[in-house]
Amino acid sequence: MSGIKTEILKDTFINEIIHLKEIDSTNDYLHALALKGYPNGTVVISDIQTRGRGRHQNIWYSPEGNLYMSILLRPQKILHNTSSMLTAFTFLGAISCVKVIDELYSLKATLKWPNDIVYQDKKLGGVLTETRFTGSDVLFVIIGIGININSKLETFPAEITDKATSLIHLLAKEINIEDVMISLLLKLDYYYKMLMSEGLNPILKAWILNNSTLGRKVRIETADNSYEGIAEGLDDLGRLLVKKSDGTVSALSNGHLFYL
Ligand code: BTN
After folding, report:
1. Structural contact between residues 52 and 69, judged by C-beta atoms closer than 8 angstroms
2. CA 146, CA 94: separation in Å to the nearest integer?
């Protein structure tokens, strides 16, 4: 860590911030560093990504002016299955984004299950969590966060202009990316320590308090299924509970969710 601003991170789990001008994907770059043995708390940010990735092999539009950051964690084993690990760290990242945007800019963004940060249903950011296990032990977790900060709506690719938004659009002023990054790392530290000491419950509560999915009519598409229902709640592993019209409830750990 270097520079005056990063002094503020000295009591956090953040170990080193690697700032790149351009990279294919900060998640991929950090993945390679993780395999080389880089420690818990290694952070990679890049001004531009040439192959930024979202969930389900989506491209993450990554021109200069936004935040692209990945954080390496080597957590103790607190949760027993892969998908609840992914959920825990995805929620942790997404909650941190929503809290920081509110604290810095008094803007109430919300969470769309499972990994979106939205403002009035338009996508402001997303979280891509990837884990690697050895046997049943977690080798590492990478939380990748992208937030649309200074991209003007008219510059977004046509296929996302009506679905996405950015802080500059919502606040009508240019935002300092480093301010967002530092506040986000502090917030991630807070929720990471909470997850390690208290388990998933407080993270699920924070997600519920800040979400805009529960109570809504949704369509779910998974690899082998598609159905409609009401998003009713989360179970204690963080799976989304969807009540179908026949009254049965599905617990979902992955899939596409669309509002109806
Ligand atoms: C999504 O909404 O589908 C997740 C988007 C995650 C984008 C971030 S940007 C930094 C990190 N590097 C990537 O390639 N993806 C994540």
Report:
1. no
2. 10
